[in-house]
Design goal:
Radius of gyration: 23 Å
Oligomer: single chain
Number of helices: 13
Distance between the termini: 23 Å
Structural class: mainly alpha
Shape: elongated
Helix content: 55-70%
Strand content: under 5%
Length: 281
């Protein structure tokens, strides 16, 4: 394949979510300020997060400050999903920390275990609270993150509706069709990029276009999207390997490289249309 990819078309919803919401900077907050927040707001449940443990401090602090900022904001699915992913990272850290043998073994191991059980329960709580949601982003989260088959059916039933006419949701649909209908996947990926705005470009869609094109024997399109990906900073194979894979003549390479530059410019300006990707050699 022309691009170095891992788990083709695997959408990491956390990335899509965080592109539309600010990353928290709890790791830069002083320990003193976090302690004060915990003392002033019992609802943050800091006591269940093993706050005095040096392990997992940064992600734990991010979680606390996310919860603190959410206190004065209207409750939303997006905020809960972000909390889920913060808890997920905290849980991973705790699972690693549990393998470390502390000097004061019994007490600290028990606190870490209790914090781990708390994180697991909190993930389950968020899943339960989000289950009734009708938002396509939430349904996709429940399907892709937890394997909820009901959420999957409800999400796919929205295909063709205005609620899925966003770049992220068209890409989400493409992840479903990749193993079922590659020509349709190709069209969905193009539409996903057409719906991109504000200069936000989903590089995973570009990588997938290169790979799907190659699988469909659309070699010119595959090279074209590989070059677009390269201009976006996506790792690609060497020029020697590219020439071995595609074996175009020099004029073809030159024209495709120029077309890739034009596509990249249009994507960055939020003006991409699929006609720009039409091959005319």
């Amino acid at each position: 394949m022309p691009l170095i990819t891992s788990k083709l078309m695997k959408l990491h919803y956390a990335i899509l979510l965080l592109t539309s919401s600010s990353l928290l900077t709890g790791c830069f907050e002083s320990r003193k300020n976090t302690d004060q927040v915990c003392l002033s707001e019992p609802s943050l449940q800091c006591s269940s997060l093993n706050v005095n443990d040096g392990q997992c401090r940064i992600i734990r602090t991010d979680l606390i400050w996310h919860r603190y900022e959410a206190l004065d904001a209207p409750q939303s699915d997006a905020s809960q999903i972000q909390e889920y992913y913060l808890i997920k990272e905290y849980r991973k850290c705790l699972e690693l920390a549990s393998q470390i043998q502390p000097i004061e073994q019994a007490a600290l191991k028990e606190k870490r275990f209790n914090a781990l059980m708390y994180a697991i329960n909190e993930q389950e709580r968020i899943n339960t609270e989000l289950a009734p949601s009708q938002a396509p982003e939430t349904l996709y989260f429940l399907w892709s993150e937890t394997g909820d088959s009901t959420a999957k059916r409800r999400f796919l039933a929205m295909e063709g509706q205005p609620s899925l006419e966003t770049s992220a949701m068209q890409y989400a649909l493409a992840t479903h069709y990749i193993s079922r209908d590659k020509p349709k996947t190709y069209e969905l990926l193009l539409h996903s990029l057409e719906l991109s705005s504000d200069g936000h470009i989903n590089n995973d869609a570009i990588k997938s276009l290169a790979s799907v094109s190659y699988a469909l024997s659309k070699t010119h399109e595959s090279y074209l999207w590989t070059m677009v990906g390269k201009q976006q900073g996506v790792p690609v194979v060497t020029n020697t390997e590219l020439k071995r894979m595609f074996a175009f003549n020099n004029d073809e390479y030159k024209r495709l490289d120029a077309q890739a530059q034009s596509i990249t410019s249009s994507l960055r300006a939020g003006e991409f249309t699929r006609q720009l990707a039409t091959i005319n050699l």
